[in-house]
Amino acid sequence: MWFNQVASCFSALCANAFKLTTMSKVVGVVKTICDPKHNSRNIVFQQQYYFSTMPTVKKDTATFTQTGHGVYILTTKNIYYNLALEDWLYKNGNFDNGELLLLWRNQPCIVIGRHQNVWAECNILDALRQGVDIARRRSGGGTVYHDLGNLNCTFFTSRKRYNRKHNLEVIAQALRDKWKLNLSVSKRDDMLLDDNFKISGTAAKLGQNTAYHHCTLLFDVHVDQLCTLLHSPMKGLESRATESTRSFVKNLCEVNNTINYTSLVDCVISEYFLAHHKHEVTYVDPTLEEQFPGIGKLQDDLRCWDWIYGHSPAFSLRYSANGSLGGITSHLMMHITVEKGHIENIDMELAGCDDSYKELLAEVCETLIGCRFWPMHITIALISMQLHLNSPELWALINKCFSGFLEPNCHIEQNIKETM
Amino acid sequence: MATLARTLLFFTKPRVRLHNLLYQKQRRCGCLLGRHLSLKKQSIASARCFCSVSIRTFHTSQPAAGQMVPFLLSDIGEGIREVNVKEWFVEVGDKVAQFDSICEVQSDKASVTITSRYDGIVQKLYYNVDDIALVGKPLVDIELAEGAKASMEEGQIDQADVPLSTTPELTSAESHNAREKTLATPAVRRIAQENNIRLSDVPGTGREGRVLKEDIVSYLEGRAEAVQSAPPPEAAPVPPKPIVVAAPVSRPTPVVTGKDRTEPIRGIRKTMVKTMTQAQTIPHFGYCDEVNMDAVIELRTVMKTLAAERGVKFSYMPIFLKAASLALLQFPILNSSVDEKCENITYKASHNIGFAMDTKDGLLVPNVKNVQSLSMLEVASELSRLMQLGSAGKLGTHDLSGGTFTLSNIGTIGGTYTKPVLLPTEVVIGALGKIQVLPRFDSNDNVYKAHVMNISWSADHRIIEGATMAKFSNLWKSYLENPTSLILDMK
């Protein structure tokens, strides 16, 4: 038992020492002898992990061919770079003769599915206030919350060999063998603990020749944060976007407190290698442009507002509020249609006040049409009308209607950065 | 000619003969007799049919140009029979090439990109976004272009058959082009066969190493040249594979040339249209000058180090803003606002100096509140806070409204003299050009290297006179050229 710990410490040390940004070839060998008690197969097997550098990508080609089975552990915790690497491998990778398993995790972030509506899936303003990134991935499926207590696994294969159930079984079997967990894979490709709690969600992307399947694995996530952030405060939102299915979640560490990042990664890798008879783990830094030409651009594309928010399918919202206008209590109702992230149409109705405000309302509607559906942009549009000067009461009422949407009041103390 | 053809046929392998026979027969006549006899593998003589009418054949695996072909939704796998159409990448009338993306469909958490099998023009989309599409039914109609290339089913099957552990090896020394694993369309194979070229010898430049017609042509030219000049035969040069170039960060998005594109004006640009149209009603006058920046550059170098110790980023802007605020104390009319009909003037008490920010969203003008009561370090920290919020798209009403005076540092990008446009409700705007190194005369009439920056002011001529503007500008300039006077007047 103690030998295991020493060996895993040593392997972690070696891993950190060999975490490379240079192209020099370094090979380290670590032997890990697994305790037979933890192995239901009752055999002692030796694993040799070779920590090596990335296979060199030729500069004049951008294609990358994978031969045999490989495992990459990504060293950044930036969701945009990690998703960009998936995108890069999907576009440039040739997996006819090989398969790849990526293991990665991120700083707190919310990742929504390709065809989902951001506003309906999470609390955007709270997320921004807390410095939680919001990203949209290229694969389908529902919304998930990531932080350092969540391990992501991506299986890259050729289109012909794409098999989600098989991939999930590899992970489930690994966990069952090591920690005797009661795991099952549901019809929707969710991994359930004790048939009740979801510990893993799945999504996939299929192209002409390449396909990838990625899934999450919750081992020590902040569940409160997950629950509050994945709940949208927008009421009256109608949309035809893919909706997430809510499930009860549980952390693996609650069942067995020896489950942590290191032990989980070890477990998954050993099961993967056992099945495929190859032992090469590579530490990869997705931010290196020389190893992944064009990844900076892919990362920028994933970060841009038009992809994350603007790509939401069309939806409509209803807002209403009561306020005092010229001494009379009035009721303002707004019906906003948003398409491609911009306000396509807005109807405002003011009940219980005199007609002098009707013209002003019409002008407000006309100004807001075409405006990006984002607090700063709506504010700029309304300021350009001098609404806060000409009619502060109407301005206050509109603010109230948007119920805090226009005043995110978030002050950034520090840049959003990637931490290694 | 026919005799030659027949002789050639005789000397080729039986399978080739049959294939060529089929092919030749169908070119002359598509009658059932010819095909039936060929299928029974009879000799050439008996397989000849007697039709002399040349009929244009219809061959399902080689569609002719100009033909409308329904592109069926192919099998996604996993027994899935229907999918949700989520995005269209093409519209009716768009030109598509083989392997271009047509649409994105979603089925049960998997997002699938459907790519085109043909070159041509899209004529009809069978589904709208969010509709359910059925596998095996038409997805789009494509009108085939000339020399249309259909994707090779053969090529795809070749790839699938390769087992994981072995690397694919090209079958060697077979002259029958159809059996080679080199990917090429039937049209290209025919040209290669006519010219007695082995497809494996030709380097392919198409997708996944496909051999294209252009490759065969260049290979032939290369071969002809080699024969003429008689050096040792060189291998055909390896064609450059498509290079993905990492784009530098500041390169602007390339504009699509050759086709006009109209789109509605939205977002911040629409607000700018409104603001600038309103500003046009105000009569502007311009006043420009030149400022010697030697002293400011020295000052800033020192201040930058000091500010960095306190964790604040320090550029030239805090110095410009503070100097402007001090000068405004002497000329309060430049910090005023007039109402719409220009009947009343309001002298604003606080100097809320705005600065122009160019973001990817557009032009933003947040302002620093109460510059008159802030120290230069505080101004610097406010500036960096506002710039961070602005680039992240998180500025609020408080930061965006209430400005009384604006400075635009366009010189960080470039330019010397400009003609800035007022922001409505303000009466003055200043635009700073870039700092240039130019020869100037010093007090002893010697030429020396001076750092010079241009300043261009625009003011509302209904309220502000030229003299007022000039005096203000001179005062501001003197603060910059003699920073000690800045310290003297600092409140």
From TrEMBL, chain A:
Pfam families: LplA-B_cat. Pathway: Protein modification; protein lipoylation via exogenous pathway; protein N(6)-(lipoyl)lysine from lipoate: step 2/2. InterPro entries: aa-tRNA-synth_II/BPL/LPL, BPL_LPL_catalytic, LipoylTrfase_LipoateP_Ligase. GO terms for molecular function: lipoyltransferase activity. GO terms for cellular component: mitochondrion. The keyword Cell cycle does not apply. Keywords: Signal. It comes from the Eukaryota. Residues 1-17 form the signal peptide. GO terms for biological process: protein lipoylation. Residues 95-280 form the BPL/LPL catalytic domain. The keyword Signal applies. PANTHER family: LIPOATE-PROTEIN LIGASE, LIPOYLTRANSFERASE 1, MITOCHONDRIAL. Belongs to the LplA family. This is BPL/LPL catalytic domain-containing protein.
From TrEMBL, chain B:
Its cofactor is (R)-lipoate. It is an enzyme of class 2 (transferase). Residues 183-220 form the Peripheral subunit-binding (PSBD) domain. It comes from the Eukaryota. GO terms for cellular component: cytosol; mitochondrial matrix. PANTHER family: DIHYDROLIPOAMIDE ACETYLTRANSFERASE COMPONENT OF PYRUVATE DEHYDROGENASE COMPLEX (PTHR43178), LIPOAMIDE ACYLTRANSFERASE COMPONENT OF BRANCHED-CHAIN ALPHA-KETO ACID DEHYDROGENASE COMPLEX, MITOCHONDRIAL (PTHR43178:SF5). The branched-chain alpha-keto dehydrogenase complex catalyzes the overall conversion of alpha-keto acids to acyl-CoA and CO(2). It contains multiple copies of three enzymatic components: branched-chain alpha-keto acid decarboxylase (E1), lipoamide acyltransferase (E2) and lipoamide dehydrogenase (E3). Within this complex, the catalytic function of this enzyme is to accept, and to transfer to coenzyme A, acyl groups that are generated by the branched-chain alpha-keto acid decarboxylase component. This is Dihydrolipoamide acetyltransferase component of pyruvate dehydrogenase complex. It comes from Ridgeia piscesae (Tubeworm). The lineage of its organism: Eukaryota, Metazoa, Spiralia, Lophotrochozoa, Annelida.
